[in-house]
Amino acid sequence: MQVFCLATVETADVQCKVCGQNYALYFECKSHEERQQALQMVVDTLDQHHAESPESTVHPDKAFNVPAWHGVAHMSGAAILGGAPPWAA
User: Fold this and answer.
1) What is the pLDDT along the chain (89 residues), one digit of tens a residue?
2) Rounded CA gap, 55 and 80, in Å?
3) Cβ neighbours of residue 13 under 8 Å, at least 6 residues apart?
4) Assuming Cys at both sites, which of 35, 50, 55, 81 could form a disulfide with 18, CB separation 3.0 to 4.6 Å?
5) Cβ distance 88 to 63 under 8 Å?
6) How do the domains of the chain map onto residue ranges?
7) Rounded Cα distance, 26 and 2, in Å
């Protein structure tokens, strides 16, 4: 189960509760239960980014995957299967 997270100023699927940064989410999984679990993983990850600072700059500059993936983010299963926009590279 993987989620592609893309910072956005438009309509967001989740907002960081510490700094307010908005993220559009693209899911590899499709079931409601899996999506809820994945959403919680994203919220937890956003919280972990703030372990050192409350500033929004602690989040990755580019799109990222939860759980972490060491390949190019826009080539992840979540990005491809979730229908992430091609410009999200």
Assistant:
1) 789 999 998 889 999 999 999 999 998 877 889 889 999 999 999 999 999 899 999 999 888 989 887 777 777 888 787 878 876 75
2) 30
3) 23, 24, 25, 39
4) 50
5) yes
6) 3-88
7) 9
What six digits make up the tokens of 26?
């693209």
In angstroms, the first-to-last Cα distance of the chain is: 20
Residues forming beta bridges with residue 88, ordered by sequence position? none
Tokens (6 digits) for 55: 């500033």
pTM: 0.85
Structural contact between residues 45 and 56, judged by C-beta atoms closer than 8 angstroms = no
Tokens 């989740």 -> residue: 14
